[in-house]
Each structure stands twice: as structure tokens, then as C-alpha cells.
Amino acid sequence: MKRHLLSAADLTRDDAMLVLKTAEELRSLADRPIKKLPALRGRTVVNLFFEDSTRTRISFEAAAKRLSADVINFSAKGSSLSKGESLKDTALTLEAMGADAVVVRHGASGAPHRLAHSGWVRSSVVNAGDGTHEHPTQALLDAFTMWRHLGKDGARSGDNLEGRRVAIVGDVLHSRVARSNALLLQTLGAEVTLVAPPTLFPVGIDTWGVETSYDLDAVLPKADVVMMLRVQRERMNASFFPTAREYSRRYGLDGKRMRALQDHTIVMHPGPMVRGMEITADVADSDRSVIVEQVTNGVAVRMAVLYLLLSGANGSDHHGEAPESETDA
């Protein structure tokens, strides 16, 4: 892997598969009484969050701590950032602290790229979501979840997601998850269809290399994966659809629509879910749903990302192999 993880587009198929296979080895930690490895002992990971996030920040914090790294959580609220401190000054402070990796979530698209290429820090930078642009580790954990169910063991694709059909449904316009998934899943050979009302497709969607549809019912029977997206009303300053009820009727996944799915099809959601709008409770809690598993997989994937970035950057002899377990933790 490269020094930073800023975009899903940065990952080759080999890079992505290395992350998935490393995460698979690390995933077994979740079932052990002692969930720690010494792999990043002495390293410092800073979670620099300019936007609120619970799941992503906690996931990165758990990932770093399970690899025995020191973790500093830096929230914009209540800090010097809320008093007007610039990104540059914050970066210089982190550099002075000796951060080895900075995990950044920012409301402005491109902020992690700015931090990584500014020369202000020598640490690895991981994009944990920038505006409506990208969220590459979410795409990796989503791909990992699909791969565990559909790709790695005797599927027709053999060792990847080649030919699998993935439907991503909902607020594509405001979704950095949709963009990162579209990029990464195509790299892994999947066929992606984005489903949304016309008002919730971004300008330039035709350059993404994916199929698009306004008709959810036409797409569902052919899908191997259905990923529902949250409607991000906090990013909307206009009416993008008539009513929540109308949106749910046209683009919500309910029990009736679930019955149209193939027997092996899985249902996903990056969270947080608005139950009853984009997905009903019976679907979210069904046997088809892997939504809770996505959270568990997120920790393993972020462990893999931090391990591959930091061990590789520091001349480790591991060369991408998963670290051995600590026997006396």
C-alpha cells in the first residue's frame, strides 16, 4: 500500500485484496477473550474529527488499541479549532506530538488530501470521510463483508467479487459511501447499479462507470447485494422528494421487496439507519441483514489498514503478513 489512504481510487485490486485478506486474519481476534496484538506498540494514532461521528471514531480507536498503538482523540468541538485555529496549525501540533498516523474526518471535500500533501506532517493520513466526497475504509469494510459472504469460499468468482451485482440505493448525491463503494467494487470486478430518484444523483454520475436506475423493483431480483443509504437531510437545503412517505414507497426496502431477492442476496446499510424510511425494522433485523456484522468487520478492516500503512512505512519485516498474536497479553 501507499503511505496514505485518501481515496478508494488509490487502491489497486492487489492492494484491496491485501487489506481484505489481512482483515480476515485479524477478524478472528473479535472472538478471542484477549483482543490485543503487539504489532503497533509504540506508535501513536490520532483521530482528528472535525465532524461528529460515533461509529467511525470508535471503530478506528478500537482498531488502533487492539494493535497496541497509543490513541489520541482530537475533537473539533471544544478545541482550538472551534476558536478559529487553522488546519495547518493543528497539523503542526500533531507533528510536534509525534503522530505516526492521523485519521481525519472533515466536512470539506479534499481536506485529508490537503493534509497529506501539504508537507505539514510526516505521518500517514487516513481519510475517515471528507464532505460528500469519499469514505474509503467504509468501502473496504463493505467489500470485506461481501467477500466473506459471496467471494472467498468457492463462489463462482473464486477469490474476489468478479461479476457480483451490487445495488446501492438511496441518497447517492450526498453519499461519500456510495462514491467510494462504486470505485472500489469496480476495482474488485463487481457490477454496480446506483438506484435513486433523479434529484438524488450527482452531476457527472455518467463518469463513475456504473449503471444507474430510477426503478428499485426492476433492479432487486438480479442483485447479489442490496446496500441501502441513509437520506442525509442535514446536507439538504431544498426538497429533493415530495414526502418521506413517498420516498419510502418508491425507494424503501420492506418485507415485500425483500421477498423478491435471490436466496443468497444480503442486505447492507452503512448506518445510521432511519428505520421505517429507507429500510423497515423487519428487514434490518432479518437473517439476510449483515448490518451488525459490518460494524464488527469495520474494526478488523481498520486494523488491517493501520497495520499495513504503519508497519510498511517503518521498515517492518512483515511485508504485508498479518501480525502474530500476543501470547502473554
Give the SSE map.
Layout: H1 13-27, E1 44-49, H2 55-66, E2 70-75, H3 87-97, E3 101-106, H4 111-117, E4 124-130, H5 136-151, E5 165-169, H6 176-187, E6 191-195, E7 211-213, H7 216-219, E8 225-228, H8 244-251, H9 255-258, E9 266-268, H10 281-284, H11 291-313
Parallel strand pairs: 1-2, 1-3, 3-4, 5-6, 5-8, 6-7, 8-9
Helix pairs in contact: 1-5, 1-11, 2-11, 5-6, 5-11
Describe this structure in words.
This protein is α/β, with parallel strands linked by helices. The chain has eleven helices and nine strands. A five-stranded parallel sheet has the order 7-6-5-8-9, with helices on one face. Strand 5, helix 6 (176-187) and strand 6 (191-195) form a beta-alpha-beta unit. Its EC number is 2.1.3.2.
Q: What is the first-to-last residue Cα distance?
A: 29 Å
- Give the topology string: H per helix, E per strand: HEHEHEHEHEHEEHEHHEHH
> What is the name of the CATH superfamily of the largest domain?
Aspartate/ornithine carbamoyltransferase
Radius of gyration over alpha carbons?
A: 20 Å
CATH class of the largest domain: Alpha Beta
Count of all domains: 2
**Could you tell me the number of beta strands?**
9
Strand order of the largest sheet: 7-6-5-8-9
The tally of helices reads: 11
Q: Percent of residues in helical segments?
A: 25-40%
- What sort of overall outline do the alpha carbons produce when their principal axes are compared? globular
The proportion of strand residues reads 5-15%
Structural class comes to: alpha/beta
Please outline the major beta sheet.
5 strands, parallel
